[in-house]
Amino acid sequence: MTPAYPSPPPSARAQAIAPFLVMQVAKEAAAYAASLPPNAPRMLYLNIGEPDFAAAPAVQAAADAAIRAGLTQYTPALGMDTLRERLSSWYRQRWGLEIPARRIAITAGASGALQLAAMALFDVGDEVLLPDPCYPCNRQILTSLGITATALPTTAATRYQPTAEQLAAAWGARTRGVMLASPANPTGTSIETAALAAALQVVRARGGALVMDEIYLGLTFDARYGQTALALGEDVISVNSFSKYFGMTGWRLGWLVLPEPLVPVVERLAQNHTICASTVAQRAALACFEPEALAEYERRRAEYAARRDAFVPALRALGFAVPLTPDGAFYVWADASPLFRRAGVTDSLGFVRAMMTHAHVVATPSADFGQADGGRFVRFSIATARADLDEAIARLRRWLD
Ligand SMILES: Cc1ncc(COP(=O)(O)O)c(C=O)c1O
Question: pLDDT tens digit string along 334-354?
Answer without folding.
Answer: 999 999 999 999 999 999 999
